[in-house]
Design brief:
By secondary structure, this protein is of the alpha/beta class. The chain contains eleven helices and twelve strands. The strands form three sheets. Strands 6-11-10-9-8-7 form a six-stranded parallel β-sheet. The chain has a four-stranded antiparallel β-sheet with strand order 3-5-1-12, with helices on one face. Strands 2-4 form a two-stranded antiparallel ribbon. The radius of gyration is 23 Å and the shape is elongated. The model has no long low-confidence stretch (mean pLDDT 96).
């Protein structure tokens, strides 16, 4: 797997999200748990067990979910974050107030299963091009409210994060080009407004557009939905004219096509598939008697 850096934001950033998801699930109270148990009255232990193979992602987030309900709950990683697990493998042990374990179970599991599914599919894409210099990057096609965590999961799977939001960098896409009246107009207008050191990326669909993006000094040129032949020609054109320009390929990238795209010589391949097409990794929680 290619090296990547997966860093969770501080809980100062995450806590508001986690609290809102707990509130959504608990509502005015957990009728079942609170009828059976007094708050903090009974200590318990639970195990998380993987029911399918995959890359584990989200255990620190799951631990925080339980701690927001009771700061004495302790989640111990049995399987290291970002590593492969097998069916039947214990991935975590949780100790603490039983009412907190039961109330936090669904939110914590949902997040971990979702993130683990993303990391697992990402790793399959990364493995396809592991021996090539091309890097896999994610996109902004994420679940509203979950972007920061879903992009953490793609990084755990070995991908590189593309921009987190619209304020990270300039990406002039087809609709921007149409709205501005052309690539020249779009780049010129944007460059006069953005602060240093934001980069400018331009989406292109033809060799003519690639040449125009080069003429007006785009920092990154995206080759969108091009045939392999056209993409190879575009890479040669860019390398000959300006070696500093980074090249990104995008559009209909699959596990079957990603290697051929990488062999054209692009620096990056962007795809939403690891996030939009991933299946949740099945994990269950079992209370230990």
């Amino acid at each position: 797997m290619k090296s990547s850096v997966a860093v969770l934001p501080p809980f100062l950033v995450l806590d508001q999200l986690l609290q809102s998801w707990l509130l959504e699930d608990i509502g005015r109270g957990d009728r079942t748990t609170q009828s059976l148990l007094s708050q903090n009255s009974t200590k318990g232990q639970a195990k998380w067990i993987a029911k399918a193979p995959g890359i584990i992602a989200g255990l620190p987030v799951a631990a925080r979910v339980f701690q927001l309900l009771n700061n004495q709950v302790n989640l111990i990683n049995v399987t290291e974050e970002g590593t492969l697990c097998k069916p039947g493998q214990v991935i975590a042990e949780i100790n603490g107030s039983l009412d907190a374990l039961l109330m936090g179970e669904r939110v914590a599991l949902n997040l971990t299963m979702r993130l683990s599914g993303i990391a697992s599919l990402t790793s399959l894409y990364v493995e396809k091009i592991a021996d090539l210099p091309t890097q896999l990057v994610d996109t902004r096609k994420t679940t509203p409210g979950l972007r920061i965590l879903e992009k953490y999961a793609t990084a755990l799977g070995g991908a590189i994060n593309h921009r987190m939001g619209l304020d990270d960098a300039v990406m002039i896409k087809d609709n921007h080009i149409l709205a501005a009246g052309g690539i020249r107009e779009a780049i010129t207008r944007v460059r006069s407004h953005i602060p240093y050191p934001l980069t400018i990326e331009v989406e292109t669909e033809s060799l003519e557009q690639v040449q125009e993006a080069l003429n007006y000094k785009a920092d990154i040129i995206m080759l969108d939905n091009m045939s392999l032949e056209t993409m190879s020609q575009a890479v040669s054109l860019i390398r000959q004219e300006d070696s500093r320009v980074k090249i990104e390929a995008s559009g209909n990238i699959t596990l079957e096509t990603i290697r051929a795209v990488a062999k054209t010589g692009v620096d990056y391949i962007s795809t939403s598939a690891p996030i939009t097409q991933s299946k949740w990794l099945d994990i269950s929680m079992r209370i230990v008697q």
